[in-house]
Amino acid sequence: MAVYMLGILVPVFLSIWFSKREKKSKDRAVTVEVGGEKGLTKRNWRFEHLLETPWEGADTLAILFEQTCARHCDNLLLGTRILISRETEVSEDGRAFEKVTLGHYEWTTYGQAFRSADDFASGLVAIGHEKGERVAIFAETRAEWFLALQACFRRNLTVVTIYASLGEEALVHSLNETEVTTVVCDRKQLKKLVDLSRNLDTVKRVVYMEDYGNTLEPSLSGSSSKWTVASFSHVQSLGRQLPANPDMPLAADIAVIMYTSGSTGLPKGVMMSHRNMVATVAGVTTMVPGLGSKDVYLAYLPLAHVLEIAAESTLFAAGAAIGYGSPLTMTDTSSKIKHGTKGDVTELRPTLMTAVPAILDRVREGVRKKVKTKGGFTNTLFQFAYKRRLAAVEGSWLGAWGLEKHLWNAVVFRKIRSVLGGRVRGMLSGGAPLSGDTQRFINVCFGVPILQGYGLTETCAGATFCEWDDTSVGRVGPPVPHCYLKLVNWEEGGYLFTDTPMPRGEIVIGGPSVTMGYFKNTVKTEEVYKVDENGMRWFYTGDIGCFHQDGCIEIIDRKKDIVKLQHGEYVSLGKVEAVLSGSRYVDSIMLYADPFHSHCIAIIVAAQAALEEWANDTGVQYSNFADLCSNPATIKEVLSSISKVAKQAQLQKFEVPTKIKLLHEAWTPETGLVTAALKIKREVIRKTFADDLKNLYQ
């Protein structure tokens, strides 16, 4: 025992000794003079000129795919798990849940993937798809989604990407507005198309991706008699029999029209050229050290979202392997995984992952709950180790990377790391602000950097990206080497790029990744896109940021989210929501501020595990989770928690909600209350809970 304790104490004392050393800061961005509106502009410190291609000649995604497949012909590219069985389980309260048993990953090499995409491209010609017509991909993330995309590029076809969770009205709008003639979908989405067939004006052909392990033909009753319906494998087979020469695109050609899941109104289609998308690949590739063929990436976010399509494009360009999964089968305890079956991360053991903050928050709460359940010495040791590692990450050079890191990783955090497969070396968080608490938790427990990024569909994802050695929280990094970041004055909100000590203003992004505008929406395009005297395109984001001394940007506000209260105070809804999400009881939140009142209220989706743990610890009685959420004692506890979080973040009193409505059901894309990236649809939530909001203000 004495030897064991000595093995722990020596590294701890060494860590404390070296923690006195000051870490030198470095400039991560430099100021430059460029055209356009007056402001403060910065670029990445490592490159004097903006990057446009990952290597010379790779100026379209079609060429990039062809050259990469030739370079890495025998390496693994696309992995899919085999479905062994599917069954239904009924819970004690009578609800039915589908459970699946999944096997190992089966892999397609780069060479095989290229031939599959080439066959599918020829197959599209064989079934009658003509040059100039558009293809829509309307499916969950999977290998065939990626192959269909690359196939379309080889025919210089513009792909319309649509979220699988998009509502009927938005789906019909997207397909009709872009005059899509061929839809590539999975079997689940095929049923939606069949039901809506009378409302689809231009669709002529539907290609469906087969379900793994399901050889039955889908039911097409009620579908339009004018449609040609064929399976994905059949179209590939036709392409092998009737090969067609590729029709390769130019850099200026539109590769994708990506329909955002927009938080208000009908979705807008963002036009992305090959030049735009390749520039993002070129820039992001430089931000991940050692990115290459040894990396394995877990793909599970929607490929119709710019974050995932940019990530997969970057990974395949580097020669990495991409294994496909699902949020419902990700871990060994995921809701759709049959007990005893490995989750996707356990089976794949990825080295790199992307995630949205909501998923990372759930990972954090899951680990905390499991540790607390074990109690005793295990919980005490975890808490001590966590505090030591946290102090190390935030201050001690040796503690962050030296002896103590290895000690705690071996003694405490090794089993926790196995939750994500045990090999993850880095994670990217995007799509929404990540709380500092969750970021630090991942840093400590999984021993890896979790890097925040910032970008928009209109800028082909990554505009900023935290550097690997940056251990700060709350920031989204410096500009990626393919774009400029400029702060311009927003005088109405009081944000000026001349502010000291930190320049502030609306974030404007310029460079080759700035997209071509909105499809058939000239008015909106001219409102937020500008071209300067040098021909460079700039996108006005509406987000408010500030530059830190080292050139990293922090998002501090959003123009559309600011509400003026009755007595003249301004409330930034998004800023406050990001702070209050730090409460362990908050799963999702929408702050609401009425200009005719002097205080705020909020609708909160409660975090079930945390609230039930509190109730059990304090003896609060409840029959089900809905009953617990309506209990006055529960509401009082949640109000107390968010008040503490608000006080720690130094929010003003008028920014903190005085009343809340607790919900027991999660907001999902299927409910229409959040986007596919899990951003709240503020106006939809306001209308849905209009009576509750009215009652809270009474």
Describe the protein in words.
- InterPro entries: AMP-binding_CS, AMP-dep_synth/lig_dom, ANL_N_sf.
- By secondary structure, the chain is an alpha/beta fold.
- It folds into three domains: 29-51 and 345-379 and 419-558, ANL, N-terminal domain (Rossmann fold), CATH 3.40.50.12780; 61-249 and 287-324, ANL, N-terminal domain (Rossmann fold, 3-Layer(aba) Sandwich); 565-696, GMP Synthetase, Chain A, domain 3.
- The strands form five sheets. The chain has an eight-stranded mixed sheet.
- Helix 15 (436-446) links the parallel strand 15 and strand 16 (450-456).
- Helix 12 crosses helix 14 (403-417) and helix 12 crosses helix 15 (436-446).
Q: What is the name of the CATH superfamily of the largest domain?
A: ANL, N-terminal domain
Tally of DSSP helical segments: 22
Output the structural class: alpha/beta
Biggest beta sheet summary: 8 strands, mixed
CATH topology of the largest domain, what is it called? Rossmann fold
Average pLDDT over all residues: 88
